Amino acid sequence: MANVFPSPHPLVAHKLTLLRSVNTEPKKFRELVREIAALMVYEATLDLTLQPRQIETPLAPLTGSECQDKVGLVPILRAGLGMVEGVWNLLPSAEVWHIGLYRDERTLKPVQYYNKLPIEPTVSVCLILDPMLATGGSAVATVDVLKRWGVRKIKFVGILGAPEGIALMEAHHPEVPIHLAAVDERLNERGYIVPGLGDAGDRQFGTG
Ligand code: PRP
Ligand code: URA
Fold first, then answer.
1. CA–CA separation, 196 and 21 (whole Å)
2. Across the strands, what pairs with 64?
3. First to last CA, the chain
4. Catalytic residue positions?
5. Do residues 35 and 15 touch, judged by C-beta distance below 8 A?
6. How far apart are CA 74 and CA 144, in angstroms?
7. Alpha-carbon radius of gyration of the chain
């Protein structure tokens, strides 16, 4: 698991436990997704490049720093939507490019239904946002889309991953770092992560 980064942070572990609980209602679930997403992106952006920026403090001139990378947030609809707001608070000038994918319930293969990327890439770094990396089909398909778009630096930022999804990403896109709150045991026969948290889209949107 060379390119997988499970969060070492106690706040993430605490919030993840609340998120997993079957007793957590959609309002609280959305709040936790937002908060965990921000903590995960804090960890995932440790290597953003900086450039010097000249400013004046009230007392003296100073050469400070500003982020050089143009960041694109790429939530995978629907469940990734709930991660955007928390991350956007940290990266207010990030562009948000939505990718619509759902898993066919029978084949578990991703079906794309939305992609409005312009022809030329407008960002230098893309953070894919999706709480769940299950079979990995959706993540692999999204990285395929972003590579075709021309983005060279891509990271996956999620909440829970299964070994099967991590293995698929490593087989197709080994250079893409995967940041997760935790790696769970396995998938069940319906492709759900166990112990997991259930259906991340349904639990956020109250549609389960
Ligand atoms: C969920 C999840 C991922 C995908 C993960 O979305 O948000 O996008 O499944 O599964 P995979 O790794 O096996 O591809 P879902 O298809 O349920 O759509 P939704 O977000 O619209 O509910
Ligand atoms: N999608 C979800 O929302 N949950 C899972 O456990 C797997 C895929």
1. 9
2. 53
3. 32
4. 103, 107, 199, 202
5. yes
6. 13
7. 17
Question: CA-to-CA distance for 31 and 26, rounded, in angstroms?
Answer: 9
Check if 132 has its Cβ closer than 6 Å to any atom of ligand 2: yes
* H/E element, 19: helix 10-20
Q: Output the tens digit of pLDDT for each of the chain's 208 residues.
A: 679 999 999 999 999 999 999 999 999 999 999 999 999 999 999 999 999 999 999 999 999 999 999 999 999 999 999 999 999 999 999 999 999 999 999 999 999 999 999 999 999 999 999 999 999 999 999 999 999 999 999 999 999 999 999 999 999 999 999 999 999 999 999 999 999 999 999 999 999 7
DSSP string computed for 29-82: HHHHHHHHHHHHHHHHTTT--EEEEEEE-SSSEEEEEEE-S-EEEEEEETTTHH
| CB distance 43 to 7 below 8 Å | yes
CB 73 within 8 A of CB 127: yes
Place of tokens 């290597």: 47
Residue minimizing CA distance to atom 1 of ligand 1: 132
Q: pTM (2 decimals)? A: 0.97
Q: Is 82's C-beta closer than 6 angstroms to any atom of ligand 1?
A: no
Strand partners, 103: 110
